[in-house]
Design brief:
There is one protein chain. The radius of gyration is 28 Å and the shape is flat. It is mostly helical. The strands form 3 sheets. It has a two-stranded antiparallel ribbon with strand order 1-6. It contains 5 helices and 6 strands; from the N terminus they run βαααββαββαβ. 63% of the residues lie in helices and 9% in strands. Helix 1 packs antiparallel against helix 3 and helix 4 runs antiparallel to helix 5.
Length: 170
């Protein structure tokens, strides 16, 4: 079958949900408590150890196979506008996000602001100021450029993830 990265991610979520359900069911039925006065068979939950282990093993194998196929796709599919593989883009996006967050703070600073010191100059008239040691306008321009680059990169990745296909069979 042909899958996009987006379709594969949905399948992975579904498989992980199935795995979680199997594990929770197993946890809730692998043992039980019965009072001494009760017949244990009357309160024994339905649990098939061998069948449960088989289902867990099969689901693990499906998850592993799908993740592997997705990893190969991510490391070999190039996003043309950036000349990067999806794998590289998945590293680049958080880097851009961190840079944008830092520049957002820097662009909002004042060139000179009064410093609130944690100690008090009792009776002193000394006032400390903190000065920006960079061009605030340049930080604002850089922030705008990085934000635009981030938006373009996210859009390019979204496009590839929803259109580029790879072959996959369980």
């Amino acid at each position: 079958m042909k899958l996009t990265s987006s379709m594969a991610a949905k399948m992975l979520r579904q498989l992980n949900d199935e795995m979680n359900t199997l594990r929770v069911r197993e946890e809730n039925t692998k043992s039980f408590v019965a009072a001494l006065s009760e017949d244990p068979e009357s309160v024994r939950p339905e649990y098939d150890y061998a069948e449960t282990q088989k289902q867990i093993t099969e689901t693990d194998a499906k998850i592993r196979k799908l993740k592997h196929a997705l990893n190969i796709f991510n490391t070999t599919t190039v996003i043309p506008e950036f000349n990067m593989t999806i794998d590289e883009m998945l590293v680049y996006l958080p880097q851009l996000s961190r840079r944008a967050a830092k520049l957002s703070v820097m662009k909002d600073e004042l060139p000179k602001k009064r410093e609130n010191s944690s100690y008090s100059h009792s009776g002193s008239s000394i006032i400390d100021y903190r000065y920006a040691n960079y061009d605030i306008k340049q930080a604002a321009d850089d922030y705008a450029a990085v934000s635009e680059e981030l938006a373009k990169a996210q859009t390019a990745l979204d496009y590839i993830n929803s259109t580029a296909e790879f072959d996959f069979e369980f």
